C-alpha cells in the first residue's frame, strides 16, 4: 500500500520589487540560500524586501513577517543575517482578514521584539498596490505546489443513517412557525456578528496603516530637519568666513590710507627741504632760482599726481570689491533667512508625500549602534565611519551628533539628570526613550517632577 502525503501548513518566502512579488520559494530553499549553497544573481548588490508567509492546506495565509535581507556582489545572502522569522510569526499581533480570519502580522510598526524593528518594513495598504492582497493572490496561484486539502464532502454510509420515529414525520403549524422565527433570528444574529467582525477588521487595518504612515512621516520630518540644520550650519560658517575676509580687507584699506598719508607727509617734507635749498641758491641768481623752482614744482606735482592717481585707482578697486562682497553677504543672509523659514515651514506642516526607500549599495561590514540597530556599511562609507562612528550612527537615525550623544547617555542610564539643591543628581529612574529622533533634551531625560518644574520656569520667564 503506498503512503499518501497529508496536507499541512507550509512556510514560504516571497521577494518584492517595485512591481510586486518577483520571486517565491519554500523556507528550506531560503535556508539553503542563507547557508551559501545557492545564490541569487538577480539580487546582486541590493537590499531586497521579503516576506515570510505561512500558508494552510486550503491556500489561505495565516501569518506574514515583512523583513529586509542584503545580498553581495555575486548574489550571496548576508552571512550576518539572523532574524528569527518563526518566532516573530508566532508572537505577531493580529492583522487584516485574508480569507481565514485575521492573520498574524509582524512588520516595522507592529513588532513584538523591539531590536528587530529596524530590519522590518511596513507593507503598502494603498488601493493601487496592496502588498497583503498580492501575497493572498500569490498563495492562491500555488506556484510553490502546496498540497491542497480535499474539501469534497464524504458520502454517509447507509448503516450510519438513523430514521426518526413515525410520529415525528409531520410537524404542527405552530412548531413550524416557531422554527422559522428561530431560524430568522439566528440568521439576523449571524449577519450582525459578521458585520461587526468586518468593521473591527477594517478599523484594525486602518489603524495599522495610520501607524505605518505616522512612523514614516516622523522619519521623513527628522531627516528634513537634520538637512535644514546642516545647511544652516554650512551657511553660517560661510558667512563667518566672508565677514573675516571683509574685516581683513578693511584693515588692508586702513593700512593703505596710512601709507598714502605717510607718503604725502614725506613729499611735504621734501618740498620744504627744496624750498630751503632754493632760498640758499637765491643768491646765485633770480633766473636760476625761478627755473629750479618751476622744475621742482613740476616734478613734485607730477609725482604727487601719479601717487594720487594710483591711490585713487586702488581705492576704487577696493571699494568695488567691498561693494561686491557686501552684495554677496546680503544675498547669503537672504538665502539663510529663506532656508530658516523653509525649515520652520517643514517642521510645522510636515511632509505630505512619503519618499520611496533607495536600495543600499554594497554591503561589506556590519556594526551595531544603539538606536540605529545593525548598520550595513557600504565600502564607500568606511572612511566616514572610521573617522567618526557616532556621527555616522547619528546620521542614520536622522539626528545631530550632539542629540545622539545625549540620547545615548540617557539610553545607557535612564535616570533623571536634574540637579538637586544639594548639588547631587536626582537619578530617579525614568522611562527609556528607544528612538533618538523622539528624544528631547530636558524633557525625555528628566523625571515628571523636574520636567514639570522646568516647564513652569520656562512659562514664568
Automatic annotation (TrEMBL):
Q: Where, if anywhere, are coiled coils annotated?
A: 214-284
Kindly state which keywords UniProt assigns to this record, in alphabetical order. Coiled coil
What's the protein here called? Chromosome partitioning protein ParA
Amino acid at each position: 500500500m503506498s503512503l499518501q502525503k497529508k496536507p499541512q501548513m507550509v512556510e514560504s518566502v516571497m521577494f518584492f520589487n517595485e512591481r510586486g512579488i518577483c520571486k517565491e520559494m519554500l523556507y528550506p530553499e531560503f535556508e539553503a540560500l542563507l547557508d551559501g549553497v545557492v545564490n541569487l544573481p538577480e539580487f546582486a548588490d541590493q537590499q531586497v524586501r521579503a516576506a515570510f508567509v505561512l500558508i494552510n492546506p486550503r491556500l489561505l495565509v495565516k501569518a506574514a513577517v515583512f523583513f529586509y535581507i542584503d545580498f553581495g556582489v555575486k548574489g550571496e545572502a548576508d552571512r550576518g543575517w539572523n532574524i528569527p522569522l518563526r518566532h516573530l510569526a508566532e508572537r505577531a499581533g493580529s492583522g487584516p482578514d485574508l480569507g481565514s480570519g485575521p492573520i498574524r502580522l509582524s512588520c516595522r510598526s507592529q513588532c513584538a521584539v523591539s531590536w528587530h524593528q529596524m530590519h522590518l518594513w511596513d507593507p503598502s495598504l494603498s488601493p493601487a498596490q496592496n502588498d497583503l492582497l498580492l501575497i493572498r493572490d500569490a498563495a492562491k496561484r500555488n506556484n510553490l505546489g502546496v498540497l491542497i486539502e480535499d474539501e469534497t464532502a464524504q458520502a454517509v454510509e447507509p448503516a450510519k443513517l438513523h430514521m426518526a420515529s413515525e410520529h415525528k414525520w409531520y410537524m404542527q403549524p405552530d412548531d413550524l412557525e416557531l422554527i422559522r422565527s428561530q431560524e430568522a433570528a439566528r440568521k439576523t444574529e449571524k449577519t450582525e456578528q459578521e458585520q461587526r467582525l468586518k468593521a473591527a477588521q477594517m478599523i484594525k487595518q486602518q489603524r495599522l496603516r495610520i501607524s505605518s504612515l505616522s512612523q514614516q512621516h516622523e522619519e521623513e520630518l527628522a531627516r528634513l530637519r537634520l538637512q535644514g540644520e546642516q545647511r544652516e550650519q554650512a551657511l553660517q560658517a560661510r558667512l563667518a568666513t566672508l565677514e573675516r575676509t571683509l574685516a581683513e580687507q578693511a584693515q588692508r584699506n586702513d593700512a593703505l590710507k596710512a601709507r598714502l598719508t605717510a607718503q604725502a607727509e614725506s613729499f611735504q617734507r621734501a618740498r620744504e627741504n627744496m624750498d630751503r635749498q632754493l632760498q640758499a641758491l637765491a643768491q646765485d641768481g633770480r633766473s636760476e632760482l625761478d627755473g629750479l623752482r618751476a622744475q621742482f614744482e613740476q616734478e613734485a606735482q607730477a609725482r604727487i599726481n601719479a601717487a594720487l592717481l594710483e591711490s585713487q585707482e586702488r581705492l576704487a578697486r577696493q571699494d568695488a570689491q567691498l561693494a561686491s562682497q557686501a552684495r554677496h553677504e546680503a544675498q547669503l543672509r537672504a538665502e539663510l533667512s529663506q532656508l530658516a523659514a523653509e525649515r520652520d515651514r517643514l517642521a510645522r506642516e510636515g511632509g505630505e508625500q512619503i519618499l520611496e526607500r533607495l536600495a543600499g549599495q554594497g554591503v561589506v561590514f556590519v556594526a551595531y549602534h544603539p538606536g540605529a540597530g545593525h548598520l550595513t556599511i557600504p565600502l564607500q562609507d568606511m572612511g566616514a565611519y572610521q573617522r567618526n562612528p557616532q556621527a555616522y550612527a547619528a546620521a542614520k537615525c536622522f539626528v545631530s551628533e550632539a542629540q545622539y550623544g545625549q540620547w545615548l547617555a540617557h539610553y545607557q542610564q535612564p535616570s533623571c539628570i536634574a540637579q538637586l539643591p544639594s548639588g547631587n543628581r536626582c537619578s530617579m529612574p525614568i522611562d527609556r526613550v528607544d528612538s533618538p529622533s523622539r528624544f528631547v533634551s530636558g524633557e525625555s531625560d528628566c523625571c515628571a517632577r523636574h520636567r514639570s518644574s522646568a516647564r513652569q520656569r520656562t512659562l514664568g520667564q
